[in-house]
Amino acid sequence: MEKVINCFNRQPGAAVRLLCFPWAGGGSIHYARWGNLLHSSIEVYSIKLPGREARVKEHFFGSMQEVVDEVVSALLPALQEKPFALFGHSFGAMTCCAVAEHLKRVHNIEPVHMFLSGVSAPYSETRLQAPKKSRLSDEDFLHWMKVAGGTPSEILADPEIVKLFLPVLKADLHIVENFKISRPDHPFLSCPVSCFDGTEDSPHDLEAWRDITSGEFNIQMLPGSHFYLKNKPNEKVLLDYITKHLETAEMDYL
Predict the structure, then answer these.
(1) How many CB atoms lie within 10 A of CB 131?
(2) What is the pTM of this model?
């Protein structure tokens, strides 16, 4: 399990675990920090994927199924042990969906809450018609990254650093662009689903996520572009929201 998660603050007595999935090309540290910011009743597991950080020498995955298989294989005992929630931004939100669908279908367990950010539902027309960014030339890809924001300009200006992170970023985008899931005829979850997005980001079909659950569904917009969640005031809003809803989930579970 240690190979797959980064946990800054172990909380054996926590009532619920929050699994956080990285955005495309992202590492685990941003979310692992949340373990020091959230209440001790919430233990944060930040997912580490191959091709980055301590796993930089490992070949990155080529399909969503590979991601799901590793995460579920490593974390299933922990997920069966106590209530858990999922958070993901962009590529991470797609990964949340894939993991949640697999857990429900194969193991008949589901999160107490899903927090999804910065991306259309995988079966929505908005997503299906979107251009495939993994096919862009490196020059056009870097231009898109500058427009999207979230990556320091000094990193994008350093060819050696770009050479290191561009392949894994494109690999993650290839995974999500080829991730296929049909619009559910019936919701496969019953837990609440909360969606977030930046007001200045490209429009996403967040409403389509409603189809995955029969439970409560909410959308909240926060100021900023694609990486709005890196803004400290927005991060506080997110963490306060997560805390409030997971504390409520704890009471319901008990």
Answers:
(1) 9
(2) 0.91
CB neighbourhood size of 221 (10 A): 14
**Could you tell me the CATH number of the domain that includes residue 180?**
3.40.50.1820
The secondary structure element, H or E, covering residue 32 is: helix 29-32
Contact yes or no for 207/181 (Cβ under 8 A): no
Catalytic residue among 28, 46, 89, 90: 90
Catalytic-residue membership of 113? no
Q: Are strands 16-21 and 42-47 parallel, antiparallel or unpaired?
A: parallel
**Residues forming beta bridges with residue 85, ordered by sequence position:** 18, 113
Structure tokens at 90: 């962009």
Strand, helix or coil at 192? Answer: coil
> What are 39's strand-pairing partners?
none
120 is catalytic: no
Dist CA 232 CA 236 (whole Å): 6
Catalytic hit among 113, 174, 204, 226: 226
| Block mean pLDDT (10 aa), the chain, length 254 | 92 95 93 95 96 91 96 96 96 97 97 97 92 77 73 74 81 91 95 97 95 98 94 97 86 52
Please tell me the distance from the alpha carbon of residue 44 to that of residue 42, in angstroms, as a whole number: 6
C-alpha distances out from residue 95 to 54, 218, 220, 233, 251, Å? 20, 19, 20, 26, 27
User: Backbone phi, then psi, for 54, in 5-degree steps?
Assistant: -65, -15
Report how many domains make up the chain: 1
Q: For position 186, what pLDDT does the model report?
A: 95
Q: Which structural domain range is residue 235 located in?
A: 5-253
Query: Hey, is 249 helix, strand or coil?
Result: helix
